Amino acid sequence: MGSRNQRNRRSGHLRRRSARGLRVHPVRPRRRAGIAHRPDHHRLRDARRHARRRHPHRWRRNRGHPCRPDRHRRRGRGRPRRVRDDRGPAPPRGEGGRVSILRRALPAGALAAAVAVAVSACTAPGEPADGSADDTVAAASAFLAEYVDDGRVVRTDQGGDTVSEGQAYGLLLAVAADDEPVFDRIWEWTTENLQRDDGLLAWQWQDGAVVDDQPASDADLDAARALVLAGDAFDRDDLREQGIALGASLLDRMTAETALGRILLPGPWAEASPHAYNPSYASPAAYEVLAQASGDERWNELAAGSRAATDALLEANPLPTNWATIGADGSVAIAGSAGGGGEPGYGYDAARTPIRYAESCDPADRALAGRIATALPDSATLAAELDSGAGSITTDQHPVAYAARAAALAADGRADDALADVQRMSDTAASTPTYYGAAWNALAVAMLNDDVLGGCPPLRDAGAGAAPAPAGDAGTATGAAAGLQNPVAPRQASTARPVHISIPAIGVDSGLIGLGLGGDGWIESPQDYDDIGWYEDGVLPGEIGPAVIAGHVDSPTGPAVFYDLPELATGDTVSIRRADGTTADFVVTGLQTVEKDTFPTESVYAPTPTPELRLVTCAGAWDSTTGHYVDNLVVTAVAA
Q: Composition bias, kind Basic residues: at what positions (predicted)?
């Protein structure tokens, strides 16, 4: 990283003001509002979970769908909203304000908090886990609060359009949240704006009108499932009957008989053989819900045919692909698109396949999901898109990718590994919130941990327990330490103190000092601006749980040791050497800039089932009235 003088020269502008410390707060039983900045401290404030701002730090677009140009391209990260910053200008920042002023959304924080709590294990060994229903409600409600506008599920990060898939997700999550009024508003909007004369749902609506009236079977299937479940949950025969009717229309218009059995077509346009086939559209749990409600034997035929088709496709390629073809004679082939062209790949569509099969109550379906686990990469960092041979084709990460691997691992009986991926799903959803990521983050909580959607949740059934008491319930504290100091019982690789940190991507190669608590209850900040400190009353780096490491971003004379922290990217490595010579290695999974006044304690410091790091420094705009930066930058890294 160079000497301090070298960094000063690089910064180009040296500020003339007093030092700002780190003020990291680990334990606070109640919110302490209105505390003036102190020159030797820096605080991470308790979460209020009322921040409405978003902070995606990257966005991407996928290649288009040959039949529906925007559909599958838009399932990626999406374009972040523009963020209005009305707090006044930032101070001169050496290289033009290198720390972006990003904001956190309530649903991202609430979702992350719900899932982070869900995958921790604060209950005593052997104690039955409880509260999974509460976590499902919290995650579902957070999605509904952010993306539903008067019954319309808005893809806010993708141009503000609405698709039938999103309406169906909203219906399922309204059931999961036990929110009948929201369910009614979503279904009313759907029937008024998307439902066709044949009862199926037009796929896309934008700027006040339907722009693509072709139905998509995954959306109609999810919506029919949600209607039947809502009819039971809310004691509404009208909803139940509408779900049965929608399902019957789907069976009539969007299924086909093949030598493998009855299969689900992606739309009426795919009725000619060889049929375009999307493996992720099949939903065994939905088939069972609708079979029980309607008594229509075709649902059981569809379940058997989908299982046979998926089995044949996994024989052809161990990893499910976004698209495939199935002939009337039962022949199968993987494909790169609905039209058959392009390179086959595993991406935002295919990732749903193991989730849908893992929640099935049929052991044969779960076995298919478990087979997928062996085909996926086992590295801590998982790319959002893979080629058909499981090679990464992007550096992007996405919640649905981690949810998919978690589902496959759970179906394979590897609950601990699955829970680690659920945490990574949560972290990714928090650092890069999008419509599609938030939807599958919430759906995964329900499908993998709760039976509210009519499936058999593999994590709950495996005894993994996805809903222990919240971290703040472990004692009287409700601040950061409630998640920081009470993770699951550590399986210590080493009890030796950390003595050195290396972050090659930004040239950090430094000793580590211990940071304790000051007399006022705040974590002490390093006295030297080039020192990096580890909170020694918390988790040892390498133990299970989030270990906290803090450093200054700048000094009165220029950049400090963590000045380049915002330059880190997913996949960068962090190594911690301990006093006994052992090393704990970590991989960066995300960066988030959060307001100190609304610091999301629950998601950042929640207990984790694997060793993780939180690298913390100051960020955002300089507030001359208070004499400190308004934000914190938090880098999340997981064990390599």
A: 1-82
The answer to whether the CB of 174 falls within 8 A of the CB of 448 is no
How far the first Cα of the chain sits from its last, in Å, is: 23
pLDDT at 94 over 60: no
Domains, the chain, in order of start with CATH, read: 4-9+42-57+94-103+474-639 (2.40.260.10), 129-467 (1.50.10.10)
Angstrom distance (rounded) from CA 72 to CA 69: 8
Per-chain mean pLDDT for the chain = 77
Q: What band does 182 get if pLDDT is binned at 50, 70 and 90?
A: very high
Distance (Å, whole) CA 348 – CA 67: 17
pTM confidence score = 0.60
User: Sorting pLDDT into bands at 50, 70 and 90, what band is 494?
Assistant: low
* Cβ(178)–Cβ(233) below 8 Å: yes
Nearest-angstrom CA–CA distance, 592 and 347: 24
Coil vs helix vs strand at 200: coil
Mention every residue, 6+ apart, whose C-beta is less than 8 A from residue 6.
none
Instruction: For residues 21 and 417, give the distance between their C-alpha atoms in angstroms, rounded to a whole number.
Output: 38
Residues 6+ apart with CB under 8 A from 391: none
**Which residues of 504-582 form beta strands (DSSP E)?**
508-515, 532-535, 545-551, 554-555, 558-559, 573-578
Query: Would you state the structure tokens that stand for residue 538, as one six-digit string?
Result: 């918390």
Distance CA 443, CA 522 (A): 38
- C-alpha–C-alpha distance, residues 332 and 239, integer Å: 37
pLDDT at 392: 96
> pLDDT tens across 252-267, in order?
999 999 999 999 999 9
Q: What is the mean pLDDT of residues 387-391?
A: 95
Using DSSP, state whether 623 is helix, strand or coil: strand
